[in-house]
Structure formats: structure tokens, C-alpha cells
Amino acid sequence: MRNFAYRRAGSVDDARRAAAEAGAMLLAGGTTLLDLAKCGVAAPETVVDITHLRGLDTIAHDPSGVTIGALAKMSAVATDRGICAHYPAVSEALWQAASAQLRNMATIGGNLMQRTRCAYFRDPVAFPACNKRNPGSGCAAIGGVTRNHAVLGTSQSCIATNPGDLAVALVALDAEIVLGERRVAADAFFLLPGATPQREHAIEPGEIITAIRIPVSAAACNSTYLKVRGRQSYEFAAASAAVGMEFEADGRTIRDIRVALGGVATKPWRVHAVEAVLKGQELSPEAIDRAAALATEGAVIHGDNRTKISLVQRVVARAIINRKPRGIA
Amino acid sequence: MTPRSDVLTESRTKRGDAGDGRALGARITRVDGLAKVRGAATYSLEHRPADLAHAVLVGSTIAAGRVRRVDQSEAEKAPGVRLILTPDTIPALKTASNWLGERPSEGPYHALTHEIGFQGQHVAAVVADTLEQAVEAARLVTIEYDVAPAVADLRDSRAGAGTEVEAMTIAWGDAEAALEAAPAKIRREYTTPREYNVPIEPHGLIAEWQDEDHLTIWEPSQWIAGMARTYAEWFEIPYENLRMISPYIGGGFGSKALAYSYGAIAAQAAKLLGRPVKLAVTRPQTFTAYGGRAETRQEIALGATLEGKLLAIHHRAANETSTTGTWVERCGGTIAIMYATPNFSSKHRVVPVNTVLPSAFRAPGENPSAWGIESAIDELAYEIGLDPLAIRLLNYAEHDHQANLPWSSRQLREAFAAGAERFGWSKRSPAPRSMRAGSQLIGWGVAAGTYPMRRTPGQAIVRLLADGAVEVLSAAIDMGQGTYTILAQTAAEALAVPVERVAVRLGDSSMPWAPVGGGSQLANLMVGAVHKAALAARDELIGLALNDPKSPLRHLQANTLPVGDGRIGDLEIGAFLAAIGRDHIEVLRDTFAENGKSADDPFKTYTTITGGRTTTDNGYSAHSWCAHFIEVRVDEDFGTVRVSRVVSAFDCGRIFNPKLAESQWKGGIIQGIGQALLEEGVVDRRHGRVINNNLGDYLIPTNADVPDIEVISVGVPDFHATMLGGKGVGEVPIVGVAPAIANAVFHATGKRIRDLPITLDKLIG
């Protein structure tokens, strides 16, 4: 069999050092690592087990935000009262992600590190060409079955969709990824494929995710995550949107708005253009439609994925409507 | 007077149940259920012989061509590796006969070949001491190919028109002329994609040779006798020397009735190594180690009067088959019998493409056939301005127009009536897009389904034991449909003992014969066989009581000698048997006579599919029937379809256990929801490869996709159909679900989807 070394990390520092070694991978919930090992994508030489590390699974609320330990389970975060009250988009994204079994195993930190569902990425034997797996080998997806591939943020090297739900909510709510000493904005944590699709996250060797920090905001309190998919449960998004909005005292003028897209881009896709045209505007069906059309600026169609463009615009519009105050048409 | 057990007094008969509410007909929880949920039921692949080796398959990554070279040098060096089989090294077997009992050739059979006909075809197998070692070594096998051009699927421009299957042609009247002259007509094309059985229990086997001539196969099997014959013929050993064991089956849906090449590979490895070998196909391999439902295409033209009365049905169908063999997904079944028409024409073609040979998947043939006609009749209803239910009743077939025979029973009108009433069909707003709740468009659709009665004799042993318990033995199988339970109920009924006192043993080729557990035949034929054997056992018991010189009951008469509840007369059966010097009574019976078949060749009857009666052989045309009423909610912006309500009414004759029958009906409906909305083998045409070969990407319904489903039985006992009046339950519920959903989607949205599955991109794209 293909043996690997198993190391049980004694501390966060120990884990950090161990994970820095070539061929090492962290084991938290294991739901992605085992899956990728089975399909031949992941072949770690060392598995560094961090599941037992203490103090990394807490959800700590304070007046300016919440710090979620990297080892908190998806299901624990989804049901946390403070998360539901102050960051509903985060709870809703988690509830709509994966399956109950996976949510009970998978950790928040690991969730951010999940890999794409691109069928060509996940079948190395049949499709040797994949710039993500094997830089410079080409992209088997381009020209193939691309119904679920990205329309935003693609490159000639890679068109694989980022599969995350939580990550979309985090990017919308200006969360930060805590890498021990260093903090990275969630939006910057996820990298565009460009010419280096093998590099998916702004994380350096020797760093591990220790927590996620979400700042409190009125927009976060009034946020939602809308996910559209063919199957009602346990399917990745055809298109999704995280939206948070704050209104002026008149109850109709938008003071603050955050919009991010999922299921359509190579990374969780913040759409500042949509936010910019709505900020300071009164909410109206026309304004929403006009703004939603901007969500897919720069979109590039690959083969079968044309539908994603109109779909995600409609998802953004519906998500905004779902969060508008009562009594606004 | 016969004593009545608790079960017998529990009368649950209600109108339409078609069960008599006694032991046979009672709503009993499946007898193997507790063992299954506790993990105590040992499935075939959980058998653990000593010294077990593990085989792992290597699949082709090209769709067509030839294996030029297999490099196994690295794999051979890997730890634990005991054997590597390749097209160069695998020994030849004897070609086995097919399911008709015919040998395609007298030549050798190679389970691995240099010629590649489809992606994923086995090209090598690695056997090692542990599964992990075999998996890793299999990765190290490298294969060089000479690639040939491939035809990816039915829609591939290189596929061509294929070959007409003349035996599938059905015609009466002059459909083309009648169609030409018809005042109202439609002509449409309906297609279904590749669909896969995806049972949760993977396929596979454990093969163990006892000596050179005796082989035992533990393998989930819907057809013990058929698969045992194949293995015996491959290895040229007497049938009796092949023991096939399959106590439980974790879902098959038609895919576990045949021995496939991986079985030959594992059994060969076990023989070569002299130790038992286990081979379990991986989830991705369940898409290539055997076939699912073939992709189909049907062109249907309907001609009618302006009032909606059918004048002609014209039908041209095709299915993909494999370049490696022929599978006919017979699309002319449902369409030929569902409606009354004076003119009919149906022809069928098969088109070879580079895919694994398709095979049986729940209601093969009838399912896509119903997709076509039940969509088309709905389109005609809108075209003419008739209610979709009214057009079905207007064209109700009072007899079988194809066979020109009366139905054995056809409670389809009753099914329409009961379903429509429970569903509230009369409150339907006729126009498309006229029912709405917020952003959700609501649609109501109806469609009918049918499945023919297949009937083969069966055989069973019934034993009365000294403690009053009863044993039933048969090589029949239980893949979840409830064979264990209803056979226990049958024996309990005939012998007047509580169901708990009956132990049923199935799934072993050393037991009495049974034919394939497929085609919705097994329950009826085995209930018949067990009932006959149990009554014979009872007669023998009474005969001994009255006639045996040592019998304490010798002075009694048959009509004053009650048997039941473990007693005969006023004696415990055990005490009686002891008195006459017996420890049990054993009776073996078959049902050749009851099915009008010759008992000359039981081997052929049970190991081929030629042993059964036709659907019409006794002057009646026998089928199960159903009517589905389905509500969908379609998000207008997103194109997402959710089934929100299902009411289905079934005519499956007498029901032996309503609880289990309802469970099967609901399961079939759920599978139909998957077929309608989710299931599709996605083919990369550049490579001829199905790329969603896992349960994360090949979507089947989750609980969240399944609404409350109400099922109603409107059947009546049908003794023209089967011995005890039942008709098939397992296949019919999936038939008609997909068109009912498509019809509801049209009613909701005004968009007619003729290509399954109904995905959101087809509705908003």
C-alpha cells in the first residue's frame, strides 16, 4: 500500500512545523483529505493530525465580532445562537452545504481548504492534464463538459469552480482568516487561478488556519445566503449569493451592502460593482435588476455554462429582495 | 375448527387493499428488518474466509482501440502482490451460455482482452494480501494503447442509424395512412439519457475453491441459478459443484442478475492462487463494470379526431447498445397497450456505441416507453383542449389491442378515479402557468404506467419441525422487496401458525430452484410455490395422523382434526411426531403444473429466461397498472423543480403485505423522481467517458427531494394472472413517474421538456 507517516501534533506550533515539511497535509475533519486520497488526487507523505488540539473549536463572540476556532465543526457553527443572530448568512451557508454527516465531521478551517469538484481534476488516471494537479500539463476541462465550470475569474489554465458556500458568506462579510500571527482578508485568501491554478490560497508553508474572524456590522446582521441547485440537498451550487444590507433610517435607502457569488467563479466572488451602484440608492425593482446585471461583468462562457450568467443575476436579485425591509416594493 | 393465531385475527382489510388481512395480506413489518438495522444481517461480501486475498481492477482510459502493452513490473514489486492478471496472462475459460441458454460460441472466453470497446473496461487485475496493497499496486500498472476512433453515445454524429430489431416491430391497421388523414396530430421526439442502477451495496464477490471441481461464490445475486450456471460453465464444472450464496442484497434494481467479467476474474484468481479472493467493484467502477439503462430516443406521432379520440399511433424508437454486444431497451411495450387505437406502428433500432453493454434497470423497456406515450398523449390533450385525465379515459383500452385479448384485470380506470379524488384533480386550473404561490409556479400532471406479468414456475421446501416451528427453503432472493416476509406469511397462512414461527432461508443454490428475481415475478411465483408446499405438508401431517399405525389421532376424521398454532388435534406437533417416530415432515413442491409448463427440464427453466409463461398465454393479457398524480413547484427565475405532492394508485392485484408493497411503490416513485429531475450519465464526447461516476455527481433524490407520497391499492385478486391472485409490484411504480412530472412542469411553466432529466438549464436556458 501507499504508506504515509501519521503524526499527532502536540500543539499548534508543532502542527505548524510538521505541516511545513514537504509532502505533509493536515488532518482535521478529514472529509476532503480522505475523499481526495481515494480518487488519487491527494497522496500525502505525512498526515499531521490536529483533530485533538484543544481550544481551537470555540466560537467566541465579543462586541466587535466573532472568532471561530478553525476546528469548530460546520454543524456547531451553523447552530450557534450568536452566529444565527448576527451573521445569518454564515449559518445559512453552512446549513445548505454538504450533508448532515459531513457537517458533523468537517471543520471550518478545513472547509475553506476544500478543493474543486471539477470532474477532470478528480480523475487523474483518465485525465492526466490538469494545471491544478500538475502545473503545465494543460486543462482537460476546457472543451469538455463544462456545465458546472466557472464563468468568472477563469484563466487559460483553469476554469474550475470554487465549491464553497461558507467562503462566499465570509467574503461578503469582510471576514479575516487568522493564520496564527498573520491575518488575511477572506477575499484575498482565495487566489485567482491565473497561470498558477495549483496555488489556491494565500497561505505559506508553516502557516495553518487557526481561526476565522468576522467583524460585527449591521449588514452582517441583515444578511442571507441563497443557494440554487438542481437537487434540494447535498449538491454544490449552480449559483449562490451572500448578501448583507444596512438601510438608512428611512428604511429604504441602502447605507451599506455586501454581495458575493458562489458556484460561478474560480474563487468566492465579491461583486463591488453591484454594491457601488446600490449604495445610497433607494431600493426598487429597477435598481435591483440594474445592479444584478453587473454581477457578471467580465464573465466568459465555456461551452455549456452559459446558464450560470443569467441564473446568478437572478439569484443576486432574489437574495436582495429576501433581505429588503417589509413594506418596500 | 382451525385455531386462529394473533396474526390471523388481526384484520386490516380495507377497501382497495386487495389483501385479505389474514397472515397473507397482513401489514407485517419485514422480518429481516431488525437484523439489517442492527448490522446483524451478513451480506455476501461480509463473509470472511481465512487467508482471503483481495483483487482490484484496472480500467481502460480509452473508449476504443487495443491494449498494446501492459507494464506490470512496478506493480509486481509492490508489497503483498500475489498475482497480476492481464490480457496477456489471463487463462482462457469456456464461453458460457447467455440468458437464453444459448452459447454464443464454443470457443474460449477471456475476461480480459486486448480489444477495448469502452472506457473503464477491465484491462488488468491485481491481487494482493490486503485491499490497500492491491489498490496501490493497481495504480502502478501502466498500460499503453493503440487508440481507435470511438462513438461516444447515441447523439454522437458518428453513431449512425443502427440496426432495426425486426422482432420488436408491432403493427396493426395502417398507421401512416390514418395519421395522414387525421384531423389532429402531433409529432414529437422524446429522449432519455444513460441512467445507472447505483445500488448502495457495491457489486462484487468472494470466490473460494474447495477443490479443483468445487467452487463457492458469495455474491449479491438476483438470480442464484442463472449466475451459478454461468460460473459453472466458465470453469467447466458440474452445476451441482457450484454453490452460490446471497443471503441479502443491498439493492439491485436489475443490475445483480448476471455474472459479469469481474466475477470470472476473481474466481480465476482464486483458482490460480489456491486461496479465496474478494473483489468489490469501486463506486466509479459501478458505472463501467456493468451497464445501466441505455440511452433512448423515440419519435412519436399521434393522430386523433378533433374530439381527441386516437386514430393512429406511429412510433420509431432507438436505443444505444455497446459495440461489445446487443441490449434492446424495448420502447414499444407501454405504447402498444395503453390506449385504444385502430392503427398502430412501432419499430425499434439499436445503435452500437462505445459504452459498457447496457442492461436491466427497473422496468426496462416499459419505463422509457411510458416516458414517450404518456408525454405525447398529454401534448395531444393540450393541442385539442382536453383535460389530460379526460383524454386518457376517452382512449381507455377496454382490451389488449396488440394481442386482441381481454385483460386478466385492468383496474386502471379505478386507479385514475381514486388518484384523482385523493389528489383533488377536479380543482385543477386547466391553463398552463395559471397556478402560482409567490415566485413558485405550480403544476399538476398525470400519467399512467404498466408492467407485464412474467410468470415462471418455482420450487420450495416446507418443513414442519418437532417444536411446531416451520422452515421454508428456496433459492429465491430478497433484495429488499420482502421475500423473506411474504414467504413466512404464506407458510403461516397455509399451516395456521404465527408468522414468528416460520423461518425462511433464501439465496443459496443448494436450496430448491427459483428463477430470476426480476421482471416483477418473484413474489407471486414463490408465494404460489410455498403455499402449495405448505398445504402439502399439512396434508401429509393429517395423513400421518389418520393413517400411521402409531398415531394417537388415528381414530379421528379429517374434518375433526384441526391443525394450527403448533398443534394437530389436541397434541403438540412435536409430541405427535415423537409418537409416530418422526422428527420432522419435509415436503418439496414445484408449480410447473399450475403454470401450464412441462417439468421436463427444470435446469433450463430456472437457469435461463425461457422458462416463463408469456403475458398472454392463457387467453388473457396480464399486467399491473398505475396512475400517478403529481404536483410540482417550479421557481420561475431559477428553473428549479421540486415535487411537492404525489398521489399514486396501483392495480397490482391481490397484495400479500400492504406495508411492503407500499414501500416498494414509494421506492419506485422516488426513483422516478430521480429519473425525471436528476439522473444522467454525463458523457465527455471527446473521450467517450462518463465523468460523473460517483454519488457526489450522479445525483439521486435525497430525503429533501421526496415529498409525502400517498399510495392507494385499487387491485382485486386476479387468478388469471397468478396462482394466488397477485400481480407484479416492484417494477410498475417507476413507470409513468417521469412523464407525470414533465406534464406537471408543462402545466406549471408552459415549457415542454422532452429530454430527461428536467434540469434548470433546460427551463431557463
Describe this structure in a few short sentences.
Chain B: InterPro entries: Ald_Oxase/Xan_DH_a/b (IPR000674), Ald_Oxase/Xan_DH_a/b_sf (IPR036856), Ald_Oxase/xanthine_DH-like (IPR016208), AldOxase/xan_DH_MoCoBD1 (IPR008274), AldOxase/xan_DH_MoCoBD2 (IPR046867), AldOxase/xan_DH_Mopterin-bd_sf (IPR037165). By secondary structure, chain A is an alpha+beta fold.
Task: Describe, in plain words, how this protein is organized in 3D.
Chain A: Residues 1-219 form the FAD-binding PCMH-type domain. The complex is a heterodimer of chains A (329) and B (765). By secondary structure, chain A is of the alpha+beta class. Chain A is built from 13 helices and twelve strands. A five-stranded antiparallel beta sheet of chain A has the order 4-5-8-6-7. A four-stranded antiparallel beta sheet of chain A has the order 9-10-11-12, with helices on both faces. Chain B has 765 residues and is α+β, with helices and mostly antiparallel strands. Helices cover 25% and strands 24% of the residues of chain B. Chain B is built from 18 helices and 32 strands. Chain B is globular, with a radius of gyration of 27 Å. The model of chain B is unreliable at 1-16 (pLDDT under 50). The A-B interface holds A 1-2, 40, 99, 117, 119-120, 123, 125-126, 143-145, 147, 228-235, 238, 304, 306-307, 310-311, 314-315, 317-318 and B 59, 61, 79-80, 119, 130, 132-133, 135-136, 139, 439, 635, 637-640, 642, 677-678, 682-684, 686-687, 689, 691-692, 696-697, 699, 701-705, 759-761, 764-765.
